[in-house]
Amino acid sequence: SDPQITAGVQGQIQTIQCTSNNVGLVDGAGFDLSAQGGFTMGSGAIITMVYTSGDTLWHEIYRDRL
């Protein structure tokens, strides 16, 4: 979450695939993750989010730790 991902537009979908290890996404730093706290991504991990303009957050809709 540092740097924070740029705001999107209503309904925009974004998928991130990690190409490194230990990349952390923090709940509440522009994200509304399904699990409290955060998501530490390992190499190959994927997360997909949808943006809602009402609360200006990316909401998690899918993750895979691979």
Your description of this structure?
By secondary structure, the chain is mainly β. It has strands at residues 13-17, 23-26, 31-32, 38-41, 46-52, 57-64. The strands form 2 sheets. Strands 1-5-6-3 form a 4-stranded mixed β-sheet, with no helix packed on it. A two-stranded antiparallel ribbon has the order 2-4. β5 (46-52) and β6 form a beta hairpin. It is globular.
Report the total helices.
0
Cα(first) to Cα(last) distance is 21 Å
Kindly state the percentage of residues in helix.
under 10%
Radius of gyration: 11 Å
SS-based class: mainly beta
Q: What shape does the CA trace take?
A: globular
Mean pLDDT score, rounded? 87
User: What is the assembly state of the chains in this entry?
Assistant: single chain
Which percent range describes the beta-strand content?
A: over 45%
Uncertain runs = none
What is this structure, in a nutshell?
By secondary structure, the protein is mainly beta.
Please describe the topology of this protein.
Elements: E1 13-17, E2 23-26, E3 31-32, E4 38-41, E5 46-52, E6 57-64
Parallel strand pairs: 3-6
Antiparallel strand pairs: 1-5, 2-4, 5-6
Task: Name some characteristics of this structure.
66 residues; 0% helix; mainly beta; two-stranded antiparallel sheet
